[in-house]
Design brief:
A two-stranded antiparallel sheet has the order 1-2. With 196 residues, the protein is mainly α. Helix 4 runs parallel beside helix 6 and helix 7 crosses helix 9. The relative contact order is 0.14. The protein is globular, with a radius of gyration of 18 Å. It is built from nine helices and two strands; from the N terminus they run ββααααααααα. It folds into two domains: 43 residues, no CATH class; 109 residues, AhpD-like, CATH 1.20.1290.10. The two termini are 27 Å apart.
């Protein structure tokens, strides 16, 4: 099993922790399709974990690539990343929370705002529309049956069309799926995520 070093609390020595609860294959033993995905995704721990099953890795990256292509959504990338952070912080998925907080910072060009969103969105400098999208994502995550017509009317009143709202629900739902995979597998965030 691939392990990565983690410094202990006093920094005197490192503790090894597996990248995932499953045993990712060594890169040189990956099937060609899985190897290409592994390389294309910068050899990160999440793709190493998914490489246990090439078909899973292919499905995951294909859907994610489509949903998060910068210019291929109805919602701006900043709003899709905001939703990803909302869901990931609510679910406690450390991997997705740090990865998408960094992606939100990059999309916004503002790392402080992105970090404030992850820590407590209600105290972050968000627009009314951004707050409403964040709240929608939390409801989709914690209690989708609590959504009612007033939630959708609020979003419409803030300029979102029905196709926009559907995409917001899709992104939130996808991230619940993603979080559950990576939480279940115990995938560890890459060290580079902490250096941004």
């Amino acid at each position: 099993m691939t392990a990565i070093p983690f410094p202990n609390r006093v920094g005197a020595k490192s503790l090894a922790r597996p990248v995932s609860r499953l045993s990712p294959p060594q890169p040189e033993t990956l099937e060609p399709a899985a190897r290409a995905l592994y390389e294309a995704n910068h050899r990160e721990n999440w793709i190493a974990a998914l490489s246990v099953n090439t078909k899973t890795a292919e499905r995951f990256t294909r859907y994610f690539g489509s949903l998060f292509a910068p210019d291929d959504g109805l919602l701006p990338l900043t709003e899709r990343e905001l939703i990803a952070v909302a869901v990931s912080t609510t679910n406690g998925c450390g991997l997705c929370e740090i990865h998408h907080t960094n992606a939100l910072a990059e999309a916004l060009g503002d790392s402080e705002k992105a970090r404030r969103v992850a820590l407590d969105a209600h105290l972050a400098p968000l627009t009314a529309r951004e707050h409403a999208l964040f709240d929608l994502a939390v409801k989709v995550t914690t209690d989708p049956k609590s959504l009612d017509d007033s939630d959708f009317e609020t979003l419409r009143g803030l300029g979102l069309s029905d196709p926009d709202i559907l995409e917001a629900v899709e992104v939130a739902s996808w991230f619940n799926h993603t979080n559950r995979i990576f939480i279940s597998l115990g995938v560890v965030p890459d060290a580079k995520y902490f250096q941004r």
